[in-house]
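hey all, quick one before standup. I had two proteins in the batch that finished overnight and I want to keep them in one place so we stop losing track of which output belongs to which input. First protein below, input sequence then C-alpha cells straight from the run.
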Amino acid sequence: MRAFFLAFILFLSFNVYGLQKEIEKFFYTVVNDNKSFIFLEQLTRIGPRFIGSQGNVEAVLWAEKVFKDCGVKVWKEDFIAPRWVRGKLEVALIAPVERKLIAIELGGSSGTPKEGIEGEVVYFDSLEKLKEAPEHAISGKIVFVDFVMRRKRNGADYREGSRTRWLGPKIALEKGAIAYLMRSAGTGYDRFPHTGITAISYSDGLPAIALAPADADLLRRLKDSIPRVKIFSSSRQLAPVTAYNVLGEIEGKSREIILLGAHLDSWDVGEGAIDDGIGVATVLATACYIANYSLNRTVRFVLFNNEEFGLDGARDYFDRHKDDPHILALEADFGLGKVFKIRGEKKGLVGKVLKSIRRILKRYNVKWVEEKGRGGADISFFRDRGVQFIDITPDSTFYFDYHHTENDTFDKVQQENLQNITAFYATVVYTAATLKE
C-alpha cells in the first residue's frame, strides 16, 4: 500500500512538473515573438478610432480579419452608441495678461455661442475644495480645478485625476458655473492636453476643457489677480450610431469561459497606441498563440467598443452574455512598461494558475499580490456574478504622459515591453484554459 501511495505521488509530481515545463515553454515562445508588435503597428495605421468615426469602422473590419487569419471563430455584436464630435476650440486668457491657452475639450463638452463666452476664473486646488465652495462663489464664473498628477509606477494618481475630470464639471454646473477648466489628468510636462469623458452631457450646456500643464501653471500663478478667460467651442452632438463589439472564441472541452478583453475604440486624438492599442494587440496575439491548442476550457476574446465614451459595448456584452458560464476574466487596458505585479486570490482557478507560473514570476521580478482581482472597466459588470479576476499590471510610470492625447502614438511603445505584456496575458489565459479540474 505504501509503495502504491509513493508511486501515485511520483506520478502526480511528474504530471505537475511536465505541465509546468509546457507552460514555461509557451511563455518563452511568446515573450520572444513579435506578433503583438506587428498587430499594433497595423492598428495604429488606421489612426484614431473614436466611436462613430471611419477609423472605428475600419478597426472593426481589421480585427475581424485578424481573428479569421488566426483560425479563430469570430463574430460581431451591434449596439447603439452616442455620437459627439469636437469642433474648433479657442481658449484665451484676456486678463490680467493676454495669452492663448493650449487646451482640449472633454468628451461631451458643450459648444458655445458663436461669440464665445467670457468670465472670471475661480481657482480650486482640488475637487474637494470645489465641493466645499458655496454656490455664490461659483455662479456665473469659470471654475478651474488644479489637481496635479505625479508619475507613479502603478499610476495611482489617475484615480483622483479621473475623478476631477468626471465629477468636476457636474459639480461646477450644479453651482452655476458657465464653464469648467481643469489641469489635464496626466503626468507629462509638454503642451499636449489630455481629453476624457465627464459626468455631464452635451445638453447640459457647459463647456468642459482640459488645459496643458504649462497653461495650467500660468493660471495658477495668476489666481490672485482675478484672471479672465474667453472660450469659443463648436463641438456638437450628432445622431446615435450603430457600433460593434468584435468577439473571438476558441472552444474547449468545457463550456466554462475564460474571458480576455480590451477596448477597440480610442479617443479622437493621437493613434490610440497605448490606450488601448497595446491591449487590442495583446488580445489578438493571445488568440493566435493558443488557436491550435486542445483546451479544457473555452476562451472568449472580446474587443469592446465605445469604452471611452460610455462603456456601451461592455454594457451590451453583459446584457447579452451575463448568464454564460464565465469563471475567469482579464482585461488588458493599462500600462506601458514591463509587468511588475499580478493580483489574484489564492483560491479556486486563479490560485492554481498563479501557482503554476510562480517560477516565471520570480524570474521576471513580478510580485503576486494575493488579493481578489478587480478587473478593468469593461469587465466590471461581472464583479457581482461570481466571476474571478486576475489583474496584470505593467509599469505605468510614463503611461499618463501620453494617455488621451495627440501624443499617444506608435513610437511610444517599446517592442520588448509589449512582448513582455503579451506573454504574461497569453500565458495566464493558456494556463487557465489547459489546467484540469
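OK second protein, same deal, sequence then C-alpha cells:
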Amino acid sequence: MFAPDLINTLRGKSAEELVEWLKTGAINLDTPIQRGYVWDVKKRGLLINSILTSVPTGSIWFNKTSAGVYEALDGKQRLDTVRAYMNNEFAIWAGVEPKSISVNGEDLPIIGKLFRQLDKELQRKIKGHIFDIYWLNNATNEEKKIIFSRINSGVPIKPADLNRIDILSRAAFTSLAKHPILGLWLGDRKVRKFVDEDVLQDVFCMLCAPKPNLMSKPRSEFLKTTALTAGQEDELRSALDCLKAFHAGVSLNIPLFSKLRAKVHTEALVYAAVLAVRRGMTREGYVRRMKKFFSGAEHIVSVSEPYNTACRSGSSKEPQVRARMDAITRALDVSDSDIGGIGVESEVVKGKPRGRKAKPKTDAVIGAASARPPVKRGRGAGRPANAAE
C-alpha cells in the first residue's frame, strides 16, 4: 500500500519554467531509474513538432526528495529535448510532418530550423507549452520502482534498470563513468545505455565479490550490500588511465579495436589494469602484455583458449568469469624478458597443461584471489548510499 500523500499533482508547468528549473538544479534528470539520453534527432524533432501542432505530449513524473529536488521518474527524454532545442543544440528533423505551421493565415517553415530561427510566435508556443506534472513525496526506492514499472507498462524494462537505484555506491560509479576513455572506447550509444557504469560495477564484482557471479540476481545483491571504498575508487580511476594508454596503442588497428570494444573484453582490460596498478606495473608493461594477450588470429580475440571459451555462451556465470580472471592474471604474470611467451603460457584445458609454463615475475605478484582486499559489507559501510540523489 502507498502512503495517502505519496502521489501529488502540480499545476501545469510551462516548458520555459521547467527548463529554468533544470538550470537551477531544482530538477535532476540523471537519476538511476532513468535510462541515458537515448533519443535520436528523429524523436527529438517529432516532439518539437508535436508541441508546435498542439499534439498532447504526456505527463512528467518526479520524486520530490527531502531536499526539495525533483528527481525525474518519467519524462527525462522530453525535458532534455525541450532544453536542448531552446538552447539551439539541434534543428528540427527533415522527416517530420507537417513541414510548416500556419500562424495568422501564414505558413511558417519549421524544417531544419534552430529555435532561434523560428518565428517569434512559434518560439512563444514552445516556451508556453504546458506539461502535466505528477510527483511522489519522498518515495522509497521500492515505491519508485513500482510507480516506474506502472508508468512504463507498455515498454519492457530490464531488471538492471530497476535494480540500478539500489546500488550502494551508485554515485561513485556514476562519477567514475565520466572518465573520457569510456566514451571514447565504448561509443555514445553504449554510454547512453549505462554500459560504462555496468563495466565498472562488473569489475568491482570480479575483484571483491566472494563468488564473482555476474548474473543479474547475485550481481545485484552484491552491489546493494557492498560499498566501494575510496581506495578502490582510486584504483579504478588509475585503471581507466591504463585503458587510455592501451587505447592509444590499438586504436589504429581497426579490426582489433572493434573486437575489444565488446563489454566482456572491456571488463577484462579494466580488471587487468586494476591488478597491474596493485602490482606497481608501469602502463607500458600493462599495454605490452595486453596487446600480446589480445593478439589472436583473425576470428579469435585472445591467444588464450580458456579465455575465448569463457567469453561465449553463459559468460556471466561464475565458472566463466573465473576462467577469464585466471587467464588475465596469467598474462600479467609473465616477466618482461619472457613477454613473447604469453601465447604459449601454461593453460589447463580439461585438466591437462598446454604449452610451456611462463616464468613468474621476480618481484612479489599478487594473484587475482589474493589481490582482493577485505571489503566492508552492509549499508552502513564505506561510502554512504545516496538513494535519493
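Flagging for whoever picks this up: The CA atoms of residues 52 and 122 lie 7 Å apart. Confidence is low (pLDDT under 50) at residues 341-389.
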